[in-house]
């Protein structure tokens, strides 16, 4: 197939798994989709391609805008979208970052094997559900004051280390060591801080989860060894973000940008792409507020992991020091990074919304533990499918500004999911047929997250691996899952 026609747009095949929409009607660059034809059929079912084209109108955008293999419709900018935008003559867009700033995932490795856990699944899921706050609203492992939130916003994981919630090794195995120095509490609203002060160390709701998994497959033994992974090993995946605080930061700055930069907004095809011009006061303030929310999210996941360690040591008698953080990766983020553009190094705001940084070996931002092997990349699947650990691929810098997918990607909306599925039936089916134990605040949450609402994560990862943007290292499968 040389072209792919959706009826409203025609994509041209650049090479296998790479499709391009040429620039038209004000697009500054082409729009690229990285997908197999199977995934492209699903991606073209909603407004993903329209949103991808719209994002190519943003000032200063470089090379092309990108949709990862798990892409689907989002708020203004597609989930699974990536755009590198010049930090001098471009802009920064809160809509292209998302409301849940630094929604991300981390993996905790354990010395346990699947046989150690079998027979204890119900006890384990009950204990984790009781230990880790979840659901809408307040409640966290740490409920402090606004002054505590200020410290978290500006110090990130350093705060968690000082308070006894983290170890030095945790910081060494987190993206950016869990700290963005640009984080500035003074540009985060009191409303955002008040929303965050009772939510430090909580899962929230929706697609956020805590999942105990077993390693089922290893594809690159040498890399898996460097990552501390082996067949039948028990690991834990934690997926959550900056909670109400991050949502409020996005809301606050979208409103301010709409008021103060209406001229730029008028040039864009969708107001949800509202952006602050690079060099403007609002661009600077949003970046500092976003970095503060990034710090908050890292601490949030750290405290969830702290409670998870408590449960595992109590139930199975393992030593805390044997429960090691493999890595923590961010999904919704716009970071200043230097990339090659037409043979020249340029500093860009790399917007990754529902996309994962995937740097190969040698990139200076990588922690020493992974400098020679490449960055760990964690891609969750659904409750009834596998998840994956990848490493940054050799082609990622040239192809995707050092990025790959962030998950399976949704096939249907939450409203449609609740019409199609009944939560208790999904829970019972997972337990009885796949030996996966699920506990959630409500049946509706389980219905919204039923395995059938997601794309085929195996296919998403196969395409990433084939393109060399994220190399398969290992596959895992759920044992038990806690949802908000």
TrEMBL record:
Residues 176-202 are annotated as: Disordered. Its EC number is 6.5.1.-. InterPro entries: RtcB, RtcB-like_sf. Pfam families: RtcB (PF01139). One of its GO terms (biological process) is tRNA splicing, via endonucleolytic cleavage and ligation. The active site is at residue 406. Mn(2+) 1 binds at residues 100, 208. One of its GO terms (molecular function) is RNA ligase (GTP) activity. Belongs to the RtcB family. Essential for tRNA splicing and maturation. Acts by directly joining spliced tRNA halves to mature-sized tRNAs. Joins RNA with 2',3'-cyclic-phosphate or 3'-phosphate ends to RNA with 5'-hydroxy ends. This is tRNA-splicing ligase RtcB. The lineage of its organism: Archaea, Methanobacteriati, Methanobacteriota, Stenosarchaea group, Halobacteria.
């Amino acid at each position: 197939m040389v072209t792919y026609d959706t009826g409203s747009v025609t994509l041209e095949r650049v090479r296998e798994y790479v499709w391009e929409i040429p620039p038209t009607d004000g697009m500054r660059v082409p729009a690229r989709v990285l997908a197999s034809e199977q995934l492209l059929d699903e991606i073209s079912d909603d407004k993903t391609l329209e949103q991808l084209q719209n994002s190519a109108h943003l000032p200063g955008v470089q090379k092309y805008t990108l949709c990862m293999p798990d892409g689907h419709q989002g708020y203004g900018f597609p989930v699974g979208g990536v755009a590198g935008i010049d930090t001098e003559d471009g802009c920064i867009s809160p809509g292209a970052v998302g409301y849940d700033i630094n929604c991300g995932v981390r993996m905790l490795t354990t010395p346990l094997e699947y046989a150690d856990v079998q027979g204890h699944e119900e006890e384990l899921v009950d204990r984790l559900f009781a230990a880790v706050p979840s659901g809408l609203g307040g409640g966290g492992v740490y409920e402090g004051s606004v002054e505590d939130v200020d410290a978290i916003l500006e110090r990130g994981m350093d705060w968690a280390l000082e308070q006894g919630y983290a170890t030095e090794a945790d910081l060494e195995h987190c993206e950016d060591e869990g700290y963005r120095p640009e984080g500035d509490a003074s540009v985060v609203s009191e409303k955002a801080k008040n929303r965050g002060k009772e939510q430090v160390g909580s899962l929230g709701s929706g697609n956020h989860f805590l999942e105990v998994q077993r390693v089922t497959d290893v594809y690159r033994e040498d890399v898996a060894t460097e990552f501390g992974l082996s067949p039948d090993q028990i690991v834990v995946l934690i997926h959550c973000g900056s909670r109400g605080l991050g949502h409020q930061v996005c809301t606050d700055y979208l409103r301010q940008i709409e008021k103060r930069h209406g001229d730029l907004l008028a040039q864009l095809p969708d107001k949800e792409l509202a952006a602050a011009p690079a060099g403007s006061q609002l661009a600077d303030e949003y970046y500092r507020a976003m970095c503060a929310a990034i710090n908050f999210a890292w601490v949030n996941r750290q405290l969830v992991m702290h409670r998870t360690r408590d449960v595992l040591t109590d139930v199975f008698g393992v030593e805390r020091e044997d429960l090691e953080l493999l890595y923590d990766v961010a999904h919704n983020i716009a970071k200043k990074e230097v990339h090659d553009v037409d043979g020249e190094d340029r500093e860009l705001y790399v917007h990754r919304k529902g996309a994962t940084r995937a740097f190969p070996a040698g990139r200076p931002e990588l922690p020493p533990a992974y400098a020679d092997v490449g960055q760990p990349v964690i891609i969750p699947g659904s409750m009834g499918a596998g998840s994956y650990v990848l490493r940054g691929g050799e082609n990622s810098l040239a192809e995707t500004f050092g990025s790959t997918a962030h998950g399976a990607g949704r096939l249907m909306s939450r409203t449609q999911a609740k019409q199609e599925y009944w939560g208790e039936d999904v829970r019972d089916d997972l337990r009885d047929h796949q030996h996966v134990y699920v506990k959630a605040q409500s049946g509706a949450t389980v219905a919204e997250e039923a395995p059938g609402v997601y794309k085929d994560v195996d296919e998403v990862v196969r395409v990433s691996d084939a393109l060399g943007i994220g190399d398969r290292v290992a596959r895992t499968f759920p044992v038990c899952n806690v949802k908000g």
